[in-house]
Design a protein that fits this description.
- The protein is an alpha/beta fold.
- It has 2 domains: 3-30 and 279-386, Aspartate Aminotransferase, domain 1 (Alpha-Beta Complex), CATH 3.90.1150; 39-276, Aspartate Aminotransferase, domain 2.
- It contains 15 helices and 13 strands.
- The strands form 3 sheets. A 7-stranded mixed β-sheet has the order 2-8-7-6-5-3-4, with helices on both faces.
- Helix 7 links the parallel strand 3 (110-115) and strand 4 (131-136).
- Helix 6 (92-104) packs across helix 11 (245-256).
- The longest helix is centred in the C-terminal third of the chain and has 24 residues, at 278-301.
- The radius of gyration is 20 Å and the shape is globular.
- Bound molecules: 4'-deoxy-4'-aminopyridoxal-5'-phosphate and glutamine.
- Residues 11, 13, 30-31, 167 line the site of glutamine.
């Protein structure tokens, strides 16, 4: 067996969802909404399933979806992409990440990773033979600094992985931070694999800034998106990667031997969804922001110190500021077993020097679930006061 996989634990998301099922806890851990996505997108998938071909679609994706991705980014983010040479459909952002990392990292290459980092990044980099160079962000601001990037980048840097908006911190990097990272990437001729699955889930009037639009980055970025996040359909696994045509040749070769294709009816439905009008996107954001505010207010009233959430389905609790002296893993373990709430310890997103004082909660739930979660978290205060 490959020791990388043989010695790897199950992901924290699967572990906490499993514990929630076992204990009957409310699952505010793994990030998925209670709702089932927009009805017209579901109908488009249903229609495509019975009316259109269910045989292998083209390896790079259905033309209608690749065109929709290019049109969507032109309309929403001002990026000009040639759908034929610069857009490849994948089975979720997870496959896009794997394809991009395998295509761009040669054994021995250095890869800059920003902690906290989504759990798939490091194992994929190691599988590709990459040498991780870790940058560490800290609460409560989680900001990227020039010193940290200068220490991580070198002439051996092939790739840097960016996640913006950032899961699990629910923060958004400023244009100044993105420009800083862009400067390092261009200087060292490195490619930024930019995981932007949360690009539409941003609150309070914020607009998403794609790093691909920063100076010098058009040729230095692989931009990754996911229909699962845009349409609250996390099980669908329809994603894509966008990059200059010099890069897409290798990206497509990696993709062709990971999955080759993605279910065509879901591709057609996501293509339909990407054309939805502005009202859908603003309404979706407003709904999630209302849920965020409901959970934030309830937790704050119960005495939990909540860190601000600018985007994603998540908010986090600062344990130290909440007067809880035990670490995040212990807190999450006790929350699920003794308080009936599954949450995610943020230390799971670190490979070294973990931040152990922050717990992530998902607010993408119906009001009744949020309210029950608040009631249980309020009771849990007593649990930790005693510990
Ligand atoms: N990247 C990040 C940062 C994520 O949060 C997620 C899922 N929540 C993914 C990638 C995976 O996306 P997909 O389900 O489209 O594979
Ligand atoms: N990205 C989701 C989260 O952060 C989980 C996805 C998964 O379970 N792989 O909760």
């Amino acid at each position: 067996m490959n020791p990388l996989y043989a010695n790897m634990p199950t992901t924290i998301f699967e572990k906490m969802s499993g514990l929630a099922r076992e204990t009957g806890a409310i699952n505010l851990g793994q990030g998925f909404p209670d709702s089932n996505g927009p009805a017209d997108v579901l109908e488009a998938a249903q229609r495509a399933l019975v009316v259109q071909s269910n045989q292998y679609p083209p390896m790079a994706g259905l033309p209608v979806l690749r065109q929709a991705v290019a049109d969507h980014y032109r309309r929403h983010q001002g990026i000009d992409l040639d759908w034929q040479s610069e857009v490849i459909v994948t089975s979720g952002a997870t496959e896009a990440l794997a394809a991009a990392i395998f295509a761009l990292v040669t054994p021995g290459d250095e890869v800059v990773l920003i902690q906290p980092m989504y759990d798939a990044y490091l194992p994929l980099v190691l599988r590709a033979g990459g040498v991780p160079k870790l940058v560490r962000l800290e609460p409560p601001a989680w900001r990227l600094t020039e010193e940290a990037l200068a220490a991580a980048f070198s002439d051996r840097t092939a790739v840097a992985i960016l996640n913006n908006p950032l899961n699990p911190t629910a923060t958004i990097f400023s244009d100044a931070e993105l420009e800083l990272l862009a400067r390092f990437a261009v200087k060292h001729d490195a490619i930024v694999i930019s995981d932007e699955v949360w690009e539409h889930v941003v609150f309070d009037g914020r607009a998403h800034s794609p790093i691909m639009a920063m100076p010098g980055m058009r040729e230095h970025t692989v931009k990754i998106g996911s229909g699962g996040k845009i349409f609250s359909l996390t099980g669908w696994k329809v994603g894509w990667m966008c990059a200059a045509s010099e890069l897409t040749h290798a990206l497509a070769r990696a993709h062709q031997f990971l999955t080759f294709t993605t279910p065509p009816n879901l591709q057609a439905a996501v293509a339909h969804g990407l054309g939805k009008n502005e009202a859908y996107f603003t309404g979706m954001r407003a709904d999630f922001a209302r849920s965020r505010d409901r959970l934030t207010a309830g937790l704050a009233e119960a005495g939990w110190a909540v860190l601000p959430s600018a985007g994603t389905y998540f908010l986090s609790i600062d344990l130290a500021a909440s007067g809880v002296a035990v670490d995040d893993v212990t807190v999450c373990d006790r929350l699920v077993r003794e308080a009936g709430v599954a949450a995610i310890p943020v230390s799971a997103f670190y490979a070294e020097a973990p931040v152990t004082s922050v717990v992530r909660l998902c607010f993408a739930k119906v009001d009744a679930t949020i309210d029950e979660g608040i009631a249980r978290m309020a009771k849990a205060r007593a649990l930790f006061a005693r510990s």
